[in-house]
Amino acid sequence: MRRTGMLALAALLAGTLALGSAVTAAETTTSPGGAQGVKTMELEQTWDKTFPKSDKVDHSKVTFRNRYGITLAADLYIPKNASGRLAAIAVSGPFGAVKEQASGLYAQTMAERGFVTLAFDPSFTGESGGEIRNVASPDINTEDFCAAVDYLTTRPDVDPERIGIIGICGFGGMGLNAAAMDTRIKATVTSTMYDMTRVTANGYFDAMDADARYALREQLNAQRTKDARTGTIARAGGLPDTLRGDEPQFVKDYFNYYKNPERGYHPRSLNGGDGWNTTSALSFMTMPLLAYAGEIRNAVLVIHGEKAHSRYFSETAFAMLKGDNKELLIVPGASHTDLYDQLDIIPWDRMEHFFRTYLK
């Protein structure tokens, strides 16, 4: 595979068009320093999700700012007829997806089960703010989870002592990093997790050596020079519009999700479009996300599919965790993308039990 293809695929593993009518949403935001302000964004108000709207929850659009001043857009789901302060869960991922896809499905389903939930677009993607567009950062995207916790702690319907997170695919690694940093996160679920720093620096199954990494850094930095001189930003590319038929099975699985309008396609998702900026991969090559995973004291449930090509990420991460409040759940027969949206395969009951046990 050409190196550019490897970059595109690595970025995928883990949008700019709007649907329907856009409505201005003004949300009071609170900075970590306590200052308040109003950030106005154009947010889509029609139901443009890849899953049906539930009649068991109330849905609204909200915004909040992270520590870097980037305004994030999110979907808030609240159980109908809820009263008092509830446990809450912030959700994000997969890497290159938007909140209208898997994270929204997870959030809405967990709201049906009694939690206040928040599915957000990471910085620089989807409806969230941040310039330049279409970039990822192990630091900033970890902070996005912490900013979601900031927002949830300000809500009168949320118990700030009972907040958890769910990270899907590449945002599973970000979620574990957030849990290692943010002691307010009392319970963490990762689903079909990718360690984006590991796969970017080492390739699949750690096949890249130091020479290959150096060559990749040379290519990425040459692209930075070209971008600077031309004033344009090269894109790595998402999934192809058609398959040849000889692709690895997991690429076919991604295609069947991200490019399928009957399943997971969404025009704002990078994976279904032109992908990340090519140079976005640079920061993931020297900043290992899970360096302090062993210091997470709060509960963690690691979920992965038995047949997922990415299963080794979760198994390695779980081996780093310490304490008797950590669990690895391997879903029999499941592939990586099965845990994006297959309602009869995603272990909803187990997740609900986990959060009810540790968010109490």
- Give a count of the beta strands, DSSP E runs of length 2 or more: 10
Instruction: Give the low-pLDDT segments.
Output: 1-39
CATH superfamily: Alpha/Beta hydrolase fold, catalytic domain
Largest sheet: 8 strands, mixed
The neighbouring-strand order within the major sheet is 3-4-6-5-7-8-9-10
SSE succession: HEEEEEHEHEHEHHHEHEHH
What would you call the structural class? alpha/beta
Mean pLDDT: 91
Question: Compute the gyration radius: what is it?
Answer: 19 Å
CATH class: Alpha Beta
Instruction: Provide the CATH topology.
Output: Rossmann fold
Query: How many domain modules?
Result: 1
Oligomer: single chain
Q: Kindly report how far apart the N and C termini lie.
A: 49 Å
* Count, helices: 10
Shape: globular
**CATH architectural type:** 3-Layer(aba) Sandwich
Taken as a percent bin, the fraction of beta residues is 15-25%
Binned, the helix content reads: 25-40%
Quick structural gist:
By secondary structure, the protein is α/β, with parallel strands linked by helices. It has one domain (3-358): Rossmann fold (3-Layer(aba) Sandwich), CATH 3.40.50.1820. The chain has helices spanning 3-12, 102-112, 138-153, 170-181, 196-202, 210-230, 249-258, 311-320, 338-341, 348-358; strands spanning 22-30, 36-44, 57-65, 71-79, 86-92, 116-120, 158-168, 185-191, 299-305, 326-331.
